[in-house]
Design brief:
The chain is of the alpha+beta class and about 300 residues long. It has eight helices and twelve strands. A hairpin with an 8-residue loop joins β2 and β3.
């Protein structure tokens, strides 16, 4: 107990195996206090620089209102009315009761913090301002994202050559573009949820020195790792399919022109490329695009070009 228990995540993931080892060593009469201490699931001290350090303080959960509610100063309907909150607003529930939201044990009243800011500066780490109060818990649900979630924020580019070109074509002229088109050429900024703002928006806090450091986005503009992996995989698949289509078309053109001798020599090379490109070249090209948070359009172009 004199030394801090600092365990890297791989060791924490091996806790079930460690617990079984402790039981085996105990049954054999062997000293296993080191394993028992490492497998402890209780609260552990973490230094300030520890990247997986858990935040201290009461539990907090982000909630979304499903109907308009009233914010009271105390947990009493006759108490002072602080504010009337519209449907769709995001709140921060504080305390042990926040963990019961979404279960049959949810209490009648919840202690919440209502955001008071509508906009934030794009640079800095200034804490957000909230108003404390109480609400009835009959019109709340857990928000799609919680504090500390690592997400990618989507920022649509207002002026892009591809979008400007598509807007001038007859199918899209005078009508809004489908959502997947701006989403293919958007900017992606990774960060973590640091709070909520008025209007049902999340604050995406990015590392110090990033440009921008803060983004206020709605839930639809936030992508999880799973969603981003899926969009990257789709873009990479379309890229390699486009490259294969171009290669096969060029070979077919030479074949139709009567240059059979050239085609006989190059078809084996094309076949070999079609075998190893989807297995080796595509993952090697798509993984850096995912790590650098490239847009789906950029991933498509990179994979197709390579």
């Amino acid at each position: 107990s004199k030394f801090p228990n600092i365990l890297p995540p791989p060791v924490v993931m091996l806790r079930p195996w460690l617990l079984r080892s402790v039981q085996r060593r105990s049954s054999e009469g062997l000293p296993g206090w080191r394993l028992a201490r490492a497998a402890s699931t209780g609260p552990q001290w973490r230094p300030p620089w520890w990247p997986w350090r858990q935040e201290e303080g009461p539990p907090q959960r982000l909630l979304r209102l499903t109907a308009p509610v009233k914010l009271y100063k105390e947990a009493d309907a006759s108490a002072e009315l602080l504010e009337e909150l519209p449907s769709g607003e995001l709140l921060v529930a504080v305390g042990e009761d926040a963990l019961k939201v979404g279960t049959p044990e949810v209490p009648n009243w919840l202690s919440v913090r209502s955001p008071t800011e509508e906009t934030v500066e794009i640079m800095g780490e200034k804490p957000l301002e909230y108003q404390d109060g109480w609400i009835l818990a009959d019109a709340v649900e857990l928000a799609a994202h919680q504090l500390g979630d690592r997400l990618a924020g989507r920022v649509d580019v207002p002026d892009h050559p591809v979008i400007n070109l598509l807007k001038s074509l007859p199918p899209f002229k005078g009508s809004p573009l489908p959502d997947w088109i701006p989403g293919s050429v958007c900017e992606l900024h990774t960060g973590k949820v640091g709070g909520v703002l008025k209007g049902g928006r999340f604050l995406l806090q990015r590392p110090a020195g990033a440009v921008p450091e803060r983004l206020a986005l709605e839930s639809e503009m936030l992508l999880t790792h799973k969603e981003r992996r899926r969009s990257t995989a789709i873009a990479a698949t379309l890229g390699v399919a486009f490259a294969a289509l171009v290669g096969v078309s060029l070979h077919l053109r030479e074949w139709l022109r009567g240059q059979t001798e050239v085609s006989r020599k190059t078809w084996p090379q094309l076949g070999v490329w079609l075998l190893y490109a989807p297995v080796l070249v595509t993952p090697a090209s798509a993984l850096p695009c995912y790590g650098l948070s490239n847009s789906p359009g950029s991933t498509f172009c990179v994979v197709a070009a390579i």
